[in-house]
Specification:
Layout: H1 11-26, E1 37-38, E2 42-43, H2 45-52, H3 65-71, H4 84-90, H5 105-111, H6 117-122, H7 128-137
Antiparallel strand pairs: 1-2
Length: 144
């Protein structure tokens, strides 16, 4: 029986991830919630990535499959497994360690299923530079 190997990120996807993380850390983008965003309303962390990678997107949408493909992000908005290390990073923005977090993020922590970049951005209000650190660390399940 031949096991299927996990596809590796392409050079373009890796380069796009670096551009995305750099943009999140730059302080250039106003933070927005609930949609990919615009300069006027602010951007979700995914919207920042779409903008800086030259991806056409609808500012009112919450997701862009084209952008996800450009960075190798999983289709579920980057659902990833929470580890103790990530909980420690996220905890200052919501008491993740004790399950006292706002919005839908709490259900992921309690269930132990993980989280997504959208929830870090919209529910816990994690700053862009910290989201950049998390993306750069490539937690299990974030990328295909």
């Amino acid at each position: 029986m031949v096991s299927a190997k996990k596809p590796k990120a392409t050079a373009e996807q890796l380069a796009n991830r670096k551009v995305w993380v750099k943009a999140l850390r730059s302080g250039t983008f106003k933070k927005g919630l609930g949609e990919l965003g615009s300069a006027k309303n602010g951007y979700c962390c995914l919207g920042v990535g779409a903008k800086v990678t030259g991806t056409k997107f609808n500012p009112g949408h919450s997701h862009s499959q084209v952008f996800s493909d450009r960075v190798g992000l999983r289709e579920d908005n980057g659902q990833f497994v929470l580890t103790k290390k990530l909980i420690k990073i996220i905890a200052p923005y919501g008491d993740v360690a004790n399950g006292n977090v706002p919005g839908s993020f709490a259900r992921y922590h309690v269930a132990g299923d993980g989280s997504s970049l959208v929830e870090l951005n919209d529910c816990i209000l994690v700053p862009f530079d910290v989201i950049g650190d998390i993306i750069e660390s490539e937690p299990k399940g974030l990328f295909i």
